[in-house]
Design goal:
5 helices; mainly alpha; about 130 residues
Length: about 130
């Protein structure tokens, strides 16, 4: 059975996502002051998003695999210990997790962030 990531790491990922989001948003303000700070904020945001969305994609795949491998939807549907309303609620949650397109959103954001990071490094440090 897959176990949850360490709570400290989970909190780190949460804070990382917040910092990356703030870093991208603050660029609008920093544009009026310093291109160096814009660049720093951009790198913080981009690296943060690459890490955060790679993590989210991994989690979504793990959940999907558990639901499929353990045939949880069918087990919930056939469980006699649960009330009908409980079964329907659990089935809804499990099917929603299985059919969610969020993991594709995570991989798109990860890939485009990674490409932007590679381009930024090339432009800022290698080609200049």
């Amino acid at each position: 059975m897959t176990k949850l990531s360490n709570m400290l790491y989970r909190r780190f990922i949460f804070v990382l996502g917040i910092i990356a989001t703030i870093a991208y948003r603050v660029i609008v303000v920093l544009n009026n002051y310093s291109s160096l700070w814009v660049q720093i904020a951009w790198y913080i945001g981009t690296i943060g998003f690459v890490w955060y969305f790679a993590h989210r994609f991994k989690i979504e795949n793990r959940r999907d695999k558990l639901i499929t491998d353990l045939n949880l939807v069918a087990k919930v549907k056939n469980c006699t210990a649960l009330k009908d309303e409980d079964k329907k609620a659990l089935e809804y949650v499990l099917r929603g997790l299985q059919t969610s397109l969020s993991k594709w959103n995570y991989i798109a954001i990860f890939l485009f962030s990674a490409l932007a990071l590679i381009y930024g490094i090339l432009q800022d440090f290698i080609l200049n």
